């Protein structure tokens, strides 16, 4: 699932982070020569979210909760 929420650091085009900021995460090369992303991902099993993607999910959930509460008040 390239570009999805569990895409990790590879294939970030189309991710929530790229959509929200219009940029891609940058990678740096350590002294050992391995490519490391400068943004940490939160992993649960094979599912991972960057902090930016987690924040985007939290904002959407918060907005849905607010809309639901407003709908309940009106009806």
From TrEMBL:
The segment annotated Disordered runs over 1-38
Q: Where is the composition biased (Low complexity)?
A: 7-35
Tell me the protein's name: Uncharacterized protein
């Amino acid at each position: 699932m390239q570009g999805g929420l569990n895409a990790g650091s590879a294939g970030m085009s189309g991710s929530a982070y790229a959509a929200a900021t219009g940029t891609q995460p940058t990678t740096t090369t350590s002294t050992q020569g391995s490519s490391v992303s400068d943004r940490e991902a939160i992993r649960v099993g094979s599912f991972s979210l960057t902090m930016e993607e987690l924040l985007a999910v939290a904002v959407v959930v918060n907005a849905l909760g607010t809309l639901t509460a407003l709908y309940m008040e009106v009806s």
